Amino acid sequence: MNKRAIKPKPVDLLAKAGEAASFLRSLAHEHRLAILCVLEDGPLSVGEIALALALAQPKVSQHLMRLRAEGLVATERDGTTIHYRIASQTAREIAGVLKAAFCPPVRGGARRKQG
After folding, report:
1. HSE-up of residue 3 (Cα within 13 Å, Cβ side)
2. Which of 48, 64, 68, 105 has the least C-beta neighbours within 10 A?
């Protein structure tokens, strides 16, 4: 007997496609994609992200707020500094693929020391 893989129901497939479309809309901005590229290596503060991307801090904060509202990034407090990290495993995986395909290596001292 030939076993076939169970096909998802069209309703389930459409629901998942809707989730994917919503996820992709939250990434559909060059600054948000760049932010995820730099966060892919580990947590950074707003200032570190702004420095790495040569963007104004208010602009970076605005995009981080959107990414946080979508559940793609989360915060960690270190004394008075707040560091952002990728919170969603799906976002981490997509950021890794995008970084490998499109993002040049970040140069300079914007990387926070891990330890």
Report:
1. 2
2. 105
Own/partner pairs for 90-94, CB < 8 Å, 24+ apart? 90/23, 91/23, 91/27, 91/36, 92/40, 94/27, 94/36
Q: Which range of residues forms the domain containing residue 65?
A: 10-102
Residue type, 40: E
Q: Is position 58 within any domain?
A: yes
54 φψ region: left (φ > 0), alpha (ψ -120 to 50), beta (else): left
CATH number of the domain bearing residue 51: 1.10.10.10
Is 81 domain-assigned? yes
Question: Of 54, 84, 49, which is closest to residue 70 (Cα–Cα)?
Answer: 84
Q: What is the pTM of this model?
A: 0.75
Please write the tens of the pLDDT for every residue from 20-78.
Answer: 898 888 888 999 999 998 998 899 999 999 999 999 999 999 999 999 999 999 999 99
What pLDDT does residue 53 have? 95
